[in-house]
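Need F-box domain-containing protein's 3D structure for a figure. Predict it.
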Amino acid sequence: MSPPPSLSRHSSLANRFSSALPTKRPRLPSLRSRESDASLNGTNSRRNSYQPYSVYQQTMYPTILRDPDATNKLLEAILETPGGRRSLSRLARTCKAFSEPVLDIIWRDLDSFNPLIGLFPATLLKRARRPGLGLARNPEPDDWARLLAYGERVRSISYVESSGSVSPTIFPVFEELRPKNWLLPNLTSLTWKSETSAGLERCRLFLGPELRSLTMEVGTKHPKLHDLLVEVASHARLSALSFTLHTNLPDHFTDIFQNNIALEKVCIAAPGALASRVGKWTASLPALHSLQIDLTGRTTTAVEGFFDDISPGSGYSTPSSVGGTDSGVFSGEEFDFSEVRKSAARLTRDGPRHGAFAALSNLKLSGDAANVATFLKHITSPLTTLEIVIDDPPASEDWQDVCGLVCEQFGYTLQNFRVSASSASRFSELVRSTSRGGDAPTRYLPLSHLSYLPRLICLDIDLPESVVFSQEDVAHLANICPSLEILRLCPSARFPPSVGPPPLTLNGLAPLTQNCRGLHTLAVVVNATEGTEATFSTRAVSSRSLLRLNVGHSYIRDPLQVAVLLSHLAPHLDILRWFHEKNRAGVIEVNAASWQKVSEFLPYLQDIRLRERQQQAPPPAPVYVPPPTVEKAVDATVVTVDQGTLALPEVEDEGVQAEVELVEMGVQMSPEVESVSIDATPLLIDTGVMVIPAVAEHAVDAHPDFEEKATGVDDEILSETASTQTSEKPSVLAHMPPPAMSVLSLTVAVYRFYTYPLRYMFSFLP
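Structure prediction for F-box domain-containing protein:
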């Protein structure tokens, strides 16, 4: 008896390769074994039976390698499967022909620097199994060979400083001891998330010449952030820029990237990202087709200000306009009229419509639903992908505005529409799930506000609270989205027993399988009940394209009846998934066990149903009944009329007298003269020196003692005797120094000058 067919009908990779390659002949013995066998037969036999090894070499026919594109697509498909990287590494070690393309795929995208650090010799690493801990000693020039060889294969790499998986000590080694200027010369995409200034500075080592995409998240304001941004802007071929900053956006951010006109993707999440200069800069990028803006915590007025400089003079800045930002009150403390304007714009459908970003095709907005609606009013470009991240649950009127704007402005171009919850909403759900605070509330999210979307291919809604959908909503989606291929309606939603099963049943999916003929992936939580007679009575609800179904935490009653209904709705279903206790918490074990039985019953029922349909006679072809015809003659003679028109141009003579008007004008040229006087009086300083001579009085009695004697001596003899005695005694003036003599003589002269009148008068006295 043949084994039961499994739910997966795809053959393995080995079977596909074996079917594609021609039949191989039996493997010949190796060269060593042939030489050993020939040696037993003697020297002559060995000499005669020797053949080159190329004759015995097995011939391979790698048909897939003849087309490099097909090879890359095959390897990428293997990489995306569970354990695909390990399978590719084994393939590279097994087949030499696949080695190079497989290594290029494996090393193309790295999420850490650990694989590169592990290329150093094991003797250099602190721990060989944990290369992120760093090096025990500095590498020699020969130790860089493997890292440089594999570094040329790297095209994308990520670094998250907060994870701590890579030691910061490895980056000084890269900077100081690298044998080449760029360790990753072919790097085109870099993701760098740092919390410190030192961590942000390390990214300069990898800003290579081939950089095309940069994702930068900065925790604190770096003092040299301006210089780093200037270096990033120097890459003229930069096509994708994502900048997240937890502090205010630099003032000269738009001026730095003014010349990067090759930007195609821009993502800005920072306080100040809604400034008018940022809006003007993004709107001026000619190749921009993807934009991501964070509107969290902003007012409607701030969102309107993003478009102020894009189309100046639009008339929406006056106090009387609904969409204006001026309240008409001239005061510093102005009241916020954002809520009033939002309500008025919702009622009157008034507001600014500048028509910015004409070439934009992908748009991602995060924030309140009202801000998202305000931003979408300004976008008139043919969007193909729209992703909004809103706070859950959204206000009913704001959700209605968003749905109306999406269908009104992008209805005939939109192909992908995703709605997810903001990080604050996710955090609230996580707190409730970990703190035993009870089950999360479930709310209804109406889809009836959506209108005709003929080109919509993917609709993905993933919210933590707004998880309730009705059967009318699903039927409405089936009517307005005929091209739908992927539909996900909160597949992770959980309905606890206290709340009960969801209102959407498995029979309610019949409109999707009937109207959406290209639907191949469906993820929704349902209440799986028995099929109705209306569902089984028609084959129009059987989908030929539905291959994957994810029911999550769906409720189920009878596994056999559900398997019968699924075999009718999706007879070609390939993958059926649900949550069980091993992969998700809060699972109801009874439901998980019942879905396990459905997966066991379904392959047999699908096989039986397909065999029955093959044996059934095809429906009779409709007989063409021609409409009744009646012969009738019609006179088709053409009536002609001759008509002439006389066209005489009217001619008028007109003269123009042109006289030159002369105007005399005089210009007086008077030079401006300025008088400048300079005080040139010399500076005189009187300096006096007081000189007081030191005078010393000294009296010397130089008269000899005379005795009166009656001696008859001549007077001349006495005078000679007295002079002789006087000369024999030393004079006092002889003992005085010359300066003292000069001072004394000056004093005597002054004295004689002032006493001259007295002496003159006394000279007349007897």
